[in-house]
Amino acid sequence: MPDHVITVEDVETWTGPPLVLFVGISTAGSLAHVVFDGWADALGRPWVLRGVDLPPDTPPPVYRRLLAAMRRNPLVHGAVVTAHKLRWYRACAAELSERDRLVDLTGEINTLATGARVAAYANDARSLAAILGSPSGDRIVCLGTGGAATALLLALHLDVETGEPRADAPERLVFADIDPAALDALRRVAERIGARPELVHLSGPADHLVPGATLVVNATGLGKDRPGSPLTGHAPWTPGTVAWDLNYRGDLTFLHQAAAHGLSTRDGWEYFVAGWAGALTAIAGEPFTPRALSALAAAAAPHRPRRTGT
């Protein structure tokens, strides 16, 4: 096992430098391990990063054990959660000292800051809002309805700081998934914020949702955690559509498919950097400002992977 991936037991007995955890499914391949020292320097923190890999079907007691280990070990300063966000909330919400309002609104956790008290944050919507600016287009399609898609719904529909509806929200939002439970969870969030997206239950590829879209987002994890794409190679793309994959690593099949049709593509690098910037500033107890995002983006920029064929 790589040195930068540890177990829950290792967290309980950690005696090294101040530690930030990276909780995901397969964290070893992330460039966060390469970039992290630059981020820690930019924030003036003597942190080291270690991944904790948990399978998708991790039972709730494991999350609670990891949270207890973080609470009891003063050398653990927090955790950045890139997978399991919804499961963390379901397993541990009742045990948290503090939660920002987006945690209960979304039913997810993507950051934990530990110390005398344990604070939980759902910063993904803020991170997406920081890089989206004013959303353009009258029909946006998001494939996948997990944590990232939930954050996208909030970022497109709300001013995430005030909680007020955006005046420039897109006219039509379409979210699709093969998992009825995930669709139901997103529906509940939409009801809480007064949004009315079109929710589509998929039984196969989502090719029929592509025509007429101004932006199509891959938030499924396909192309990173698992190979493939939510579309076939024969999807009837509309000229001018932008394809955005929230992944920046993996086979990125979705983006290759779009590029083969001559479309503009965007990978998940900016989302990756903004997500980490939002999480690390929360752990450091500092505001997530444009200046902080710019500093952490500059630290990450030399490590951005080159994309080929898109």
Q: What's the CATH topology label of the largest domain?
A: Rossmann fold
Helical coverage, percent range: 25-40%
Query: What fraction of the residues are assigned to beta strands by DSSP?
Result: 15-25%
The total strand number stands at 13
Count of separate DSSP helical elements: 11
What is the number of independent domains?
2
**What is the 3D form?**
globular
Gyration radius, in Å: 19 Å
Span from first to last CA? 33 Å
Strand order of the largest sheet: 1-3-2-4-6-7-5
Helical/strand content category: alpha/beta
Regions with little confidence, pLDDT below 50 for 5+ residues: none
Profile the largest sheet: 7 strands, mixed
User: Averaging pLDDT over every residue, what do you get?
Assistant: 92
What top-tier CATH class of the largest domain fits best? Answer: Alpha Beta
The CATH level-2 architecture of the largest domain is identified as 3-Layer(aba) Sandwich
What is the CATH superfamily of the largest domain? Leucine Dehydrogenase, chain A, domain 1
Order of helices and strands: EHEHEHEHEHEEHEHEHEEEHEHH
Tell me what the structure shows.
Helices cover 37% and strands 17% of the residues. With 310 residues, the protein is of the alpha/beta class. It has 2 domains: 5-122 and 271-303, Rossmann fold; 126-267, NAD(P)-binding Rossmann-like Domain (Rossmann fold, 3-Layer(aba) Sandwich), CATH 3.40.50. The protein is globular. The relative contact order is 0.13.
How are the SSEs ordered, and which strands pair?
Elements lengths: L4 E2 L1 H6 L5 E6 L7 H12 L4 E6 L6 H13 L3 E6 L3 H8 L5 E2 L1 H6 L4 E3 L5 E3 L2 H9 L6 E5 L3 H11 L14 E6 L2 H14 L4 E4 L13 E4 L23 E4 L7 H8 L3 E3 L2 H16 L5 H11 L10
Parallel strand pairs: 1-3, 2-3, 2-4, 5-7, 8-9, 8-11, 9-10, 11-12, 12-13
Antiparallel strand pairs: 4-6, 6-7
Helix pairs in contact: 2-10, 2-11, 3-4, 6-7, 6-10, 7-8, 10-11
